[in-house]
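Appendix B, record 7
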Amino acid sequence: MTAALASPGTAVLADDALLAEWDDLADRVGASPFQRPGWYRAWWSAFGTSPVRLVQVRRDGRLAGVLPVTRRWGRVTTLDNWHSFLCGPLAEDAATRSSLVDRAISAASLSADLGHLSSDDAEHVAGLAVDRGCRVRRSMIQRSPYVPLDGTFDAYRSGLSSKFVGRIRSRRRKLEQAGELRLMVHTAPDEVEAALRELLRIENLGWKAEQGSSIVAQDSTHRFYRSVVGWAAAAGLLELSLLRLGGRAIAGELALVDGQSHYGLKMGIDPEFRAAGPGFILAHDLIERSFSQGLATFEFMGSASEEKMRWTGETRCIEQVRLFPPTVGGRAARLAGLGAKAGRRAGSAASRLADRPVRALTGVVGRGARSGEETGPVSS
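Structure tokens (predicted):
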């Protein structure tokens, strides 16, 4: 078994032969769409600023593991941001995963940031880093809700709040009085473009347009999702769903579906109909569809908002691990980060104390360990 970090000059995301091997590996291990080369190509074309390097592990010439990263000025980072889901090393076994992580760690002379990891991957990365003498900061990015699709849809729905389910039925009846209410799911590449235009129009209405958080609000985000749609449609992973009232789209969702899970990337709701709850009706029908497809989970994606948690009590922990190697540069990078963090904390504390009565300054409160604090060797 050999592990290597490809040089940036090899243009790994443009090497068709390598990408075919990568996709084959993803098929063998049942990887999510977010660990496939098509996702990373779309991500890097929109958000990438440094050449991609691919940590590879080969066994008897066959690709056994991959982890795409960038390396600049001694800093190694994975290819992820708030559009990402669970990424992490793609490996056919535990030994390969360890080799990938170990090679990525050894390539960092100042620091390494591995983001959007499962708790299992985060624990593994942190453990290997500590064994290498690194200082480690492990933090929670978000808790993402999901619905386990066990049993039948009727049994699942019976476990939801009866008031909540009743409200959905009532709103559906009210909408149906105004016209035919129909869910249309588009998957074929030749019909996706028209459906995508409708979804982008809806998603850019209301509060998303005001806050600048819609897909079309930023060129990079727009490019990213269009690239994802093109890749996913060709790969048979795309579902673009529109809830139509009398032929008019009033809500929609862009999702990836891989035979195991439904991953909801983006949802849009026409604010003219928001009071009628088309988003809840759409989620209800898509969960029912996922049961009928025999999927294992329905992934809401994003953070655990109150609206999403009406559907489930389950969440996935998505974590980040930042490590600093036991080098002069690693220690300097760590101390610089601690200084900036301490400065922010001091400024925040000073602001709070300025508004308190003088007597509030007489007490001292001790705090226990929290997520985000460091682990590692005692020595610095």
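Remarks on this record: The first strand starts at residue 2 and ends at 5. Residues 54 and 68 are 4 Å apart (CA to CA).
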